[in-house]
Each structure stands twice: as C-alpha cells, then as structure tokens.
Design a protein that fits this description.
Largest sheet: 7 strands, mixed
Number of domains: 2
Helix content: 25-40%
Distance between the termini: 43 Å
Number of strands: 13
Order of helices and strands: EHEHEHEHHHEEEEHEHHHEHEEHHHEHH
Number of helices: 16
CATH architecture of the largest domain: 3-Layer(aba) Sandwich
Radius of gyration: 23 Å
Oligomer: single chain
Strand content: 5-15%
Structural class: alpha/beta
C-alpha cells in the first residue's frame, strides 16, 4: 500500500506548534521550524497509525509531503539494503531492535544528533535506549516496547489472587488438572526461545555475558542453564503434551477462549481475549525458587536511513513519532506501549489495567541483545527446551546440542567462537 499525504495548512496549525513547545519532559512534539520541508518516504506497519501520525505531523509542518508504504517491521532491513542504494528506499522506517546490529554493520542507519540523544535519555527507558546504541551513538529510537507476563483467568481462579510463584502454580495444577480431559492449569509455548528465556535467568544464566555483548560465551552450557532447563522440564508433569501440540492456538489461543487459568504471553495476546469477553488480569511473572525471573523485552525502533536525501526532516518526523502526541496516536490506533519512563503522561495508557500488568514485569526484563550473532542464537536456545521436553535428549545432551547448533550457525555466517 502506498499513500501520499500532502501537508495542508490546518486551521489549528499555529496553535499546535506553540503547544508542542510547552509539553516539556512529557515528550513534546518536534517543533515547527525552518528547514523542515520537502518530501519523505516512510515505512510503517499499520495504516491507521501511519495516517493519523502523518496527518498530525504535516499539520505541524505544512511544507512537508509524506509518502507512506505499509512494510512489516521484520522486512524493512533487507529491503532498505536493496532499495536504499537504488534511490527508492525510505527516509524513515521501523525495525525490531534486534535487527539494528546488522543494520549498523550494513551502514543503512544514520546516527541521531546529540541534542536528540540527550532529550531521549530524559524521556525513555534506559534499557530501551541501550538496544539502539553502539559505541556511544544512537542509531534508532524505541517507539514501543513489550515483554511477556503472566495472564490469569479470574473466573477459573474462583476469586483467588494470582500465584506469586511458579511452585504455587504447580500446586494449583495438582488439584485443577484433568489430563484425560486435556485440562491443564498452565498452557504456554513450551519450546519458544523468546518466551522460555526466563527459566534460564531465574537460576542466573547470563546470555552473552554480563553485558550481553560477548558472542563467544552464550551460556547454554552453564550450570545455571542446566538448572533452568531442569525446572522447565518439571512442568511436563503438569502440562503433559508434546512440543508439536503446544501450538499458539492450543496454548495462548485456549486462554483467549476462556478455557485455561494461566498462560504466558505478551500484549499481542490481549485483544482477542478482550473480544471474547474473558475476565482476566495480567501481572509480572511469578518467582522461581524465590527469584524473580527476567524475561526478554523487545522494542520497535524508528530509524533514519543513511540513504535519506532529507535528513533533517526525517529526524523531525522520527522525533514526532516518539513525542507525547505521537505516542498517544500509537496507543489509540494499535494499543502499543511507549518506552517512556513514565507512561502515566499518555492518555488512555495510564488507565489501561492490562498494560499496567505488562509493565509490572518490565523492570525485570533484558532487551534482546543487538549483537549480530543474536541471529544465530534463536535455534540454539530453542534446542535446550525442545529436545528435553519431548525427552529425546538428556539435559546435558541438549546443552551440548545447543552449543553445536550455535557453532554451526556461526560457521555458516563465516564466524567462530
């Protein structure tokens, strides 16, 4: 889809420009000023978000014309690498933050001006900004953030509060489960690398070292990883299905239909549960062995292309997307959560009980590493859970399999530990 939205002279444009300068630390919109003009091509992944954001931006900057294409965030990096040199790529695009390491190596991202970097350090979560930073330069700005948490069905809990530990979930399962009826207390995607990372951190595993930046030490062969996989496998007694049967529909989908007391999911699981009228809540992940597990967090980042012919205006548009007005538009059109230190400044989001539950886990989250070798890590980490859950390998054998899978993937990419 391609749409062209010209900058019209809105009746309230002057008021908006003045107002934008008064929003302060809450994320004021980029102010209308000289030099912000010309045309932009932007790649976003949601039509409603794009149309409202572009309309508001061109209200502030009537000398700008914005052309828009709907491109999925996971597809942009590869397309920019091809389209940018050909002169047909975007000026501004989005991507998952774990793509940014390779994007920097490919030279397709423009570092942000220092004045914007300073502004974002005041406004945005430190961990979110770190995912876009390399050698002191900021190469993207997180426009939204997300992580997993515990979803619980209030009706199936019979008025009980959600459990504070995974051991308590196992005790609940002892009295709730009826395997012969395919009834289980907790259903989740048992071998998903992203989701199951928290089992490893609960026992102290550090992926790629303490700063998550040393690809030579992925950590899957550690004693901490062994203990994490062991605890993960202990749930086979309470969710006795094979990996192939723990699909999204059979786990999260079953919760969204009101049939499961607990699942582990992120904000992407909220909408269908609400549509189906499920009486549910969300809270941080329960403890394991008395420790609060850390999950992955992921950010969608906005990037200015190094091939842009209108850099200043591109940064102005990017700055608008993470302003208070821009983030309010994002929440109202997509339900996504800003990576703000204080989400209470965003109307609607501050009153969203589901997103509050997601944010309870946010302080206990690790941004997915941005080093390029993360691309080789997913299948390796998955091996820890897949082969042990289905009891094809012992835990030590699965750890060895994970390391071998990683080393093979590195070799294919021309690297070695």
């Amino acid at each position: 889809m391609k749409k062209i939205i010209p900058g019209g002279i809105f009746l309230l444009a002057a008021i908006l420009v003045v107002f934008s300068g008064c929003l302060g630390r809450g994320g004021g919109a980029a102010q209308g000023s000289g030099g912000v003009s010309g045309s932009l091509m932007v790649w976003l992944d949601n039509d409603a978000w794009a149309e409202r954001a572009i309309s508001a931006f061109t209200g502030l900057y009537p000398d700008v014309t914005v052309e828009y294409e709907n491109v999925g965030s996971v597809d942009t990096r590869g397309k920019v690498s091809l389209d940018g040199p050909a002169g047909i790529g975007p000026d501004v695009f989005i991507m998952p933050h774990d793509h940014i390491g390779i994007a920097i190596l490919d030279g397709i991202t423009e570092p942000f001006p220092f004045e914007l970097q300073d502004k974002y350090r005041e406004l945005l979560l430190d961990a979110a900004l770190e995912t876009c930073t390399s050698e002191g330069d900021l190469y993207g700005v997180p426009v939204s953030t997300e992580n997993i948490a515990l979803f619980y069905n209030k009706d199936l809990l019979g008025g009980e509060p959600p459990p504070e530990s995974f051991e308590a979930i196992q005790r609940f399962a002892e009295r709730y489960n009826r395997p012969q009826e395919n009834r289980y207390a907790l259903r989740w995607q048992v071998d998903d690398s992203y989701t199951n990372y928290f089992f490893l951190t609960a026992f102290g595993m550090q992926l790629f070292g303490p700063d998550m930046d040393d690809f030579a030490v992925p950590g899957w062969d550690s004693e901490a990883a062994r203990r994490g996989v062991e605890f993960h496998h202990s749930f086979r007694r309470y969710f006795n299905v094979k990996v192939a049967d723990a699909t999204y529909d059979a786990t999260i989908g079953a919760f969204q239909r009101g049939n499961v007391p607990f699942t582990i999911c992120g904000p992407w699981g909220i909408e269908d549960a609400v549509k189906n009228g499920v009486n549910f809540g969300i809270t941080k992940l329960p403890t394991i062995n008395g420790q609060q597990p850390r999950c992955f967090s992921g950010n969608i980042v906005v990037v200015v292309s190094s091939y842009s012919r209108n850099i200043d205006t591109a940064f102005a548009f990017t700055d608008f997307l993470v302003s208070l007005e821009g983030e309010t538009i994002l929440y109202e059109t997509t339900g996504k959560m800003a990576a703000y230190k204080d989400i209470s400044v965003i109307p609607g989001l501050r009153d969203d009980e589901y997103m509050k539950g997601i944010q309870e886990q946010a302080p206990y989250s690790d941004p997915m590493p941005i080093i390029p070798e993360m691309a080789q890590a997913w299948d390796a980490q998955k091996a820890l859970f897949t082969f042990t859950w289905d009891e094809q390998l012992s835990i030590p054998q699965a750890q060895q399999k994970a390391m071998e899978t990683y080393d093979t993937a590195l070799a294919i990419a021309g690297k070695s530990r």
